[in-house]
Amino acid sequence: MSTSGRSYRDRNGHPIVVVTGMGVVTSLGAGLHDNWAALTAGRSGIHAITRFPTDDLRTKIGGTVDFVTAEPFSAPELSERLADLAIGEAVAQAAIGRKGDFPGPMFIAVPPVELEWPQRRALAAATSGGGEIDYPRLLAVAREKGTELHRRFLFGSVAEHLAETYGTKGMPVSLSTACASGGTAIQLGLETIRRGDADAVIAAGTDGSIHAEALIRFSLLSALSTQNDPPEAAAKPFSKNRDGFVMAEGAGALVLESLEHAVARGAEILGVVEGCGEHADSFHRTRSSPDGHAIIAAIRAALDDAGVSPDEVDHINAHGTGTPENDKMEHMGLEAVFGERTARMPVSSNKSMIGHTLTAAGAVEAVFSLTTMREGRIPPTINYEVPDPAIPLDVVPNVARDAAVRRVMSNSFGFGGQNVCLIFAAEPAQ
């Protein structure tokens, strides 16, 4: 990317924010190279769950990351290990700072840190004779034994552990805005650099929380696909025969810098974070408002923040979960903003192959959005065999497509009407 003769400020006088490092891990593999090869080949990472028995469950499939382990299983521990892989790849690509001495703060989307029921029962038995958990006693026992549990109590979250590993500056921020969380982490990083509070940040999202209780919770909401056989055909975003999303695990990470800082140190610029729009509707704990006003507002806010018109967006990396309601609502929002062009613009869903990585989704799909521009190739929406006439979209069906893509919108719409839209560009605006 040429930077000669360019301003380091955007139209509002804020520092232009660029991406200098990317990292990702999903059920397709660890690292961007393997993930991108699988995505563009239309290969699915969804498979039968073997981590726990599923005999009596309606949903028996997921995008578990089985090549990264945390034994005995712990969602916080696995989430941290996935994030470590993604952040490590991003920081290495950015070649910024010394090992363990990153020159800025970290914002990371994480799932709720909680113990699963087997661990809860074991702790209850160990600390209070099988009754209610005596938390002061539990903390004292953990401190005495120097256990991993005490480390969790002491640091409070995954963010503090990773901040220690990478030597980030200031208080690390962990956040959870449902399935919009990864996008929110990038939004916070963008705003931090724009304010001039830092020249570089790590923005990441991670989720390693597929366990029986979590699967049952989503199943009780009728949110999950029950089309278990074959597993790789279960996720069907925008198809008429879609029946729910597929839970998945993964992590994505970006190193963000001001353009001036990146140029000064000779960094390779991988893309630009042009804008972000966020809006919540407070309509329901899990559903979006039927009029779609919050989704529409988030899309419009992202375009306004980036200073671009709808016609200047070449591709949309859709939230595209494959649930009957979410796909319909996303189409409604896009049509309200992009009008008749909605049916012609490529709108594809990575979730058809990797599943829904929940807290990590916005960050994982940001990496794929940036790579789409760099490679000039749009990943497909696989399993698109039965189009839904109520959702007329060019979903890049089943086969990847070569295309010149200069600007991508990446959507993340979470439970409770928490919506974040990001605008990425290949180069800073002239």
UniProtKB/TrEMBL annotation:
<dbReference type="GO" id="GO:0005829">
    <property type="term" value="C:cytosol"/>
</dbReference>
<comment type="similarity">
    <text>Belongs to the thiolase-like superfamily. Beta-ketoacyl-ACP synthases family.</text>
</comment>
<dbReference type="GO" id="GO:0006633">
    <property type="term" value="P:fatty acid biosynthetic process"/>
</dbReference>
<dbReference type="InterPro" id="IPR014030">
    <property type="entry name" value="Ketoacyl_synth_N"/>
</dbReference>
<feature type="domain" description="Ketosynthase family 3 (KS3)">
    <location>
        <begin position="14"/>
        <end position="426"/>
    </location>
</feature>
<dbReference type="InterPro" id="IPR016039">
    <property type="entry name" value="Thiolase-like"/>
</dbReference>
<keyword id="KW-0012">Acyltransferase</keyword>
<dbReference type="GO" id="GO:0004315">
    <property type="term" value="F:3-oxoacyl-[acyl-carrier-protein] synthase activity"/>
</dbReference>
<comment type="pathway">
    <text>Lipid metabolism; fatty acid biosynthesis.</text>
</comment>
<dbReference type="InterPro" id="IPR014031">
    <property type="entry name" value="Ketoacyl_synth_C"/>
</dbReference>
<dbReference type="InterPro" id="IPR018201">
    <property type="entry name" value="Ketoacyl_synth_AS"/>
</dbReference>
<dbReference type="Pfam" id="PF00109">
    <property type="entry name" value="ketoacyl-synt"/>
</dbReference>
<dbReference type="InterPro" id="IPR020841">
    <property type="entry name" value="PKS_Beta-ketoAc_synthase_dom"/>
</dbReference>
<keyword id="KW-0808">Transferase</keyword>
<dbReference type="InterPro" id="IPR000794">
    <property type="entry name" value="Beta-ketoacyl_synthase"/>
</dbReference>
<protein>
    <submittedName>
        <fullName>3-oxoacyl-[acyl-carrier-protein] synthase, KASII</fullName>
        <ecNumber>2.3.1.41</ecNumber>
    </submittedName>
</protein>
<dbReference type="Pfam" id="PF02801">
    <property type="entry name" value="Ketoacyl-synt_C"/>
</dbReference>
